[in-house]
Structures are given as structure tokens and as C-alpha cells.
User: What shape does this take?
Amino acid sequence: MNYKSGDTIAAIATPAGSGGIGIVRISGPRATQIAKKISTDKLIPRHALFTKFRNNLGITIDHGILLYFKAPNSFTGEDVIELQAHGGSALLDTLLKTCCTFGARVANPGEFSLRAFLNEKLDLAQAESLPDLIEASTEKAVIGAANSLQGKFSEKVNEIAKDILELRIMVEASLDFPEEEIDFLKDLKVSSRIHDLITQTELLKTLADEGKLLREGVTFALAGKPNVGKSSLLNALTSSNRAIVSNIPGTTRDTIEETIQLDGIPINIVDTAGLRETDDTLERQGIARTISAISNANQALLIYDITMFAKPEDVDPDGILSEFNELPMEVKKTIIFNKSDLSDCSPGEIRKNGCSIFILSAMTGEGISDLKEHLKSSLIPASDAKDDSMTARQRHISALENCIETLEKSASLFDTIGAGELLAEDLNLCNSFLEEITGKSCSDELLTEIFSKFCIGK
Ligand SMILES: Nc1nc2c(ncn2[C@@H]2O[C@H](COP(=O)(O)OP(=O)(O)OP(=O)(O)O)[C@@H](O)[C@H]2O)c(=O)[nH]1
Ligand SMILES: [Mg+2]
Assistant: This one.
């Protein structure tokens, strides 16, 4: 991507296909010149101009609304024109082609937002929340993305960065008086200030973890031997008939994913092929996919047929979990005993050796609500997310982790040696981690990676 181009860009900003209204957006130094060729009416900034749109041959192709946002008071900070026409693909293609004939070029994905960022209309975390808002799958995720877009996440990052900078300036000032340095730093309560900064950054990281969850949701993989009722449970949890259910062991061959919402968080549920020894090549491929689905999940729900146990209430959770030692150790597992309708056990949760076992019937639905409560409780604190929640992504979390790690290192070094020189350097490093989040310091490669994932016209 060309970061400092004087080009004028244009794109269809509405989705492909037919619709009531379709919008072509133009941004750059030639935007008004192009608009004057498409419409003969006088352009007035921030005025809804009902006008005729003409093609490059001067033929009227539509009537619509033309909006003119004069630089710098526009989304991109450049002159911006929006042509709101009827939403037909051929019509919008013709309008876009006309813009290009008159001096624009077709925008790259995310190029309008990139220009907004380069012209300091948005910082990087705010720009990243734009696709989050567009792609949000729950109302909570919408509120979170809207809060980040308004700069609430960046504000918190900037507050910590400001405190770090202040501390660094004080520490650096003390370096000019080496004799008094140590006493001076003690008087400034440097140690407790670093510990406060760690707490502040950890709090923000918790918010960012929740924000990531809001954006990406949580994935639970259903796993177990063939015929235990995994597909039936997927159907019961999603109130659908998404997966084929049959009494033939090995029915499910591929992974099947469905999404539901629990407390505004997207929950992805993945049904998988039953785990067993097999010579069947296709089934073995399915089992390999099961293991990979579990590795990629936040949690595995391990399902057992309750009728296989003479005394389900006496089962040792560790013993039955060890039947599946091919599954990744690090993924948290919850045990489910299905087909309770065929046993004397009542549905619900039982605790054994500090481990929860859920007894339920995917067929009758008994015990499903308890399981849903359990799934919800494993989302806490995100399920408590208030209206001040924000969306965040892994790169923000990694930057905050780096900042915390560096602060912790400098705290212990300062507490043992008490010297300010290394501390000043570390504080400087912390600020650069925080600046990566808001984009005050970031590479062109990172910008390309972020903005190329945006949709065209955004
Ligand atoms: N009585 C009873 N039968 C059930 C229950 N859940 C599933 N079944 C039956 O058990 C059989 C297997 O169910 P599936 O959901 O296909 O099992 P699966 O674990 O997905 O099986 P594979 O895809 O072959 O690994 C079907 O005949 C279901 O009707 C239940 O809660 N109670
Ligand atoms: Mg199945």
C-alpha cells in the first residue's frame, strides 16, 4: 500500500447485490472536481444535494443524494464525496467507472480508514474497531466495538502511557544528581508507583481479554466415542437439526460448527467425529479433525453414554478422562453423561474429586439448561461485561503483556538495586509497547496487515 499518496480514491461502500440505496465514496484532492463532472449542481459542504448523476458521456444514469465533506472535516480528513444512488450493481459499477474516468482510482481494502488513521482522525485501535463493529455478531459486541471506536480503549492506554512518561521524566531528572539519586527516588515513591502501574495495566489487560472474547466468541468442542450423542447434543444446544443423528456408530465424519449466543457472547459449538480405533481411512481423517478441533477450542465437552456405567455416581473423573489421552492436555475438559432418560440418575451437576460431571439427556432436553449455565459461568467475567465493555484483539493483549512483564522486571530490579538508569530505559520500552496499540509507533508492515483485512469502501 502507498501510505502517503496524493491519489484520489473511489469505491462502492455498500455490499454487493441489489438494494434500495448504494453508495459510491470518493476521497482525495480531486474529489470535488470529479463530483462537478458527475453533477452540474453547486456543491455545498455538509448539505444533502438532490441531484442528477451523469456518466462519463454526460448521460444521466440516476437521481440521488450527493454529500460533500470538505477537508479536513471528513472521515478521511481529505475532501470526501458520497454519491447515494439506487442500489443496483450495474448502476454503481458505472458510477465507480465514471469516477475513475474523471481521475480517481479504485480504493484498496481499508484505504479510506488508513487515510483517516494517517490524517489522525482515528488512532490504530479505533480504526481496528471499525471492522469489529461491522462484523459484530451480538448486541454486546456492537456496544463494545462502538466504545472502542469512540476511543474508550485508547483513552485507557493513553492514561497509563502518560503516567509511565511522567515517572520516566522524574527518574531521568534524578540521574543528573547521582549522589542524591537513591534518596531522591525513594522520596518519589518510585517503587510503589511502578506497582500501581502494574495494577493499572493488569486491569486494562482483563478488559482487553474480555474484549477479545466479545469479538471472537468462545469455542466448545463436543468429543467422545461414537454413538454417545455428540450430534444430538449439538442439536439440543443450538435448538436445530444441524447435525445428522443416527444409531450407526461413526455417523459424523467431519466437524460441524454452529454458533449460539449466551449473554451476548458468541458461542461456537463444534460437533466432531467419534473417537475410536479404526482402519477406515475416511474415519481416521475425521478423527484427526476431531483432535485438531479440540486443540483449537477453548474447552472440550467430553461426552459419555451413561448406560455404559453400572454406578455413574461412583465414576472416577480422572479414570474416564484418561481414556482419551490422545487429546491435548492443555484444553480444559468438562465431563457429560448423556442419555440420562435411560438411567435412574437425575439430570444436573454432580461434583466428584473437585470435578463437575453434567448428567443430561440430549434427547429429552433434561439437564441442558444446567449445562448452558455452566458454559456461561466459564465465560465470566465477560458475561458481566457492562455497557463500558470494549473490543480488543490479540495484538493489544500481547502489547499489554509485554508492558506488564517489563514493569515487573523493572520493579524487582529497582527494589533490589535501587538504580534509576535501567528503570528509565525500561519505562521507555513500556511506552513503546503501548504506542503499538494506538499506532503512535508501528511499522508499515503492521499497517498493511491490519488495513488489508478491511472491506473495500471502508
Ligand atoms: N435415549 C437417548 N438416546 C439418545 C440420546 N442422545 C442420543 N441418543 C441416540 O443415540 C444415537 C447416537 O446419537 P448421535 O447424536 O448420532 O451420536 P454421536 O455421538 O454423534 O455419534 P457419531 O456421530 O457416530 O460419533 C442415536 O440413535 C440417538 O437418537 C439421549 O439423550 N437419550
Ligand atoms: Mg455424530
In short: The two ends are 15 Å apart (CA to CA). Residues 129-213+393-439 form a domain with the Four Helix Bundle (Hemerythrin (Met), subunit A) fold (CATH 1.20.120.430).
